[in-house]
């Protein structure tokens, strides 16, 4: 079964810790069911999410995100076939990206529109390389 890796950026609508916790809980349950792994970099001005798994399942998640009112200005940044997963043990890793992803000012000034695949994947490779052990999934 072919695997794909998809990365999108969006602006959160109504972002707070409770919203993020619910989003992660829902995502982890559905991703375990659908054999999807990945990571979400989240803060009040930015969602940057990497999804990886079976082609049709990942595309279905992305379509749900496009319809989800918690996401504004959704922009697909990467959509490619892969042989191996970057986050094989994570139904959805999360990270606040406080210091090593674009600053708030860079996002406001168009960093998302100017980025390239290597830069975006670099953020997630750094996150994957942190060596944190995945929790037992729900």
In brief:
It is built from 5 helices and 5 strands. The chain has 138 residues and is α+β, with helices and mostly antiparallel strands.
Relevant terms:
138 residues; alpha+beta; 5-stranded mixed beta sheet; 5 helices; 38% helix; 30% strand
Describe it:
- The protein is of the alpha+beta class.
- Helices cover 38% and strands 30% of the residues.
- It has helices at residues 17-34, 55-67, 104-108, 111-114, 117-128, and strands spanning 3-12, 37-43, 46-54, 71-82, 93-95.
- It has a five-stranded mixed sheet with strand order 4-1-3-2-5, sandwiched between helices.
- The chain is globular.
- The two termini are 24 Å apart.
Q: How many separate helices?
A: 5
Q: What's the β-strand tally?
A: 5
Helix content: 25-40%
Distance between the termini: 24 Å
Could you name the ranges where pLDDT drops below 50 across 5 or more consecutive residues?
A: none
Overall mean confidence score, pLDDT: 88
Q: How is the quaternary structure best described?
A: single chain
The spatial strand order of the largest sheet comes to: 4-1-3-2-5
- In this structure, how is the largest beta sheet organized? 5 strands, mixed
Backbone structural class: alpha+beta
What general outline do the C-alpha atoms trace? globular
Strand content: 25-35%
Elements, N to C (H/E): EHEEHEEHHH
Rg (CA only) = 14 Å
């Amino acid at each position: 079964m072919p695997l794909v890796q998809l990365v999108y950026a969006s602006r959160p609508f109504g972002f707070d810790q409770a919203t993020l916790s619910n989003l992660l809980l829902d995502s982890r349950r559905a991703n375990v069911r659908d054999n999807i792994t990945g990571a979400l970099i989240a803060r009040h001005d930015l969602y940057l999410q990497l999804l990886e798994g079976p082609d049709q399942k990942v595309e279905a998640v992305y379509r749900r995100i496009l319809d989800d009112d918690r996401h504004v200005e959704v922009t697909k940044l990467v959509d490619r076939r892969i042989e191996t997963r970057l986050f094989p043990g994570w139904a959805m890793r999360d990270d606040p990206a406080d210091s090593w992803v674009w600053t708030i000012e860079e996002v406001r000034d168009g960093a998302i529109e100017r980025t390239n695949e290597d830069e975006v994947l670099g953020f997630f490779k750094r996150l994957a390389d942190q060596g944190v052990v995945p929790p037992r999934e729900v």
